[in-house]
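User: Sorry, what's this?
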Amino acid sequence: EVLPAGVNITVASGVKGAGAPALNDAVVAMGDEPFDYIGLPFNDTASVNTMATEMNDSSGRWSYVRQLYGHVYTAKTGTLSELVAAGDQFNLQHITLAGYEKDTQTPADELAASRTARAAVFIRNDPARPTQTGELVDMLPAPKGKRFTTTEQQTLLSHGVATAYVESGVLRIQRDITTYRKNAYGVADNSYLDSETLHT
C-alpha cells in the first residue's frame, strides 16, 4: 500500500496498562451455571483472588450449598524468580497457575485458554489420567536456549507453578498442579497438589 503524497503516519508504542481488571460483574454473570473448566486470561493477584473467592469451599462453587465445582486455569510468563514469587502468593486447590518462560512466543491469555481446553479434553475422557504430554495446539514455545531447565522446572513445581516442556518444537503440558501446598495449619500437604485429583 502507498500513502498519498503529503500524508505521514506514525505508530506510537503501546502503553502497558495499570491496575487489575474488575471481574466482579463477570463472576456475578456466571451465577449458578456449572463450569467444569474456567480459563482465566488474567494472572494478577487481584484477579486470581477474585476467582479464588468464587471457587472456595465455604461459600463458593465448592461449598455444600452451591456444589457447582469446577477448576480455574491461568498462565503467566516471566523469569524463574518472577514465577516463583507469583506461585508463593497463593495456596489454592481450585486454581492452576501455569508458568512459561519470559521469551515464550505466545501471550499468556492464549496459553491459559489452550491449557484449559487440553485439560478439559483429557480429564473428560479419564479424570484419573494425568494431563502430562498434552499438546498445547498452535502455542509457540520459547526459543531454544531460553527454555527452563529441568532443575528450574522442578523449582517452579515446588512453588505451586504448573510447567510445560517442548518436544520436537511442540509445547506440551509437563505437569498440571494447583497452587495448594499447605493445609490450614501451615503444614506441608500434597493432597490437592495435582489438579486431576479434584476432578475424580
Remarks:
- The chain has five helices and five strands.
- The chain has a mean pLDDT of 95.
- The chain has one domain: 27-199.
- The helical segments are 24-30, 45-55, 80-88, 108-125, 150-158.
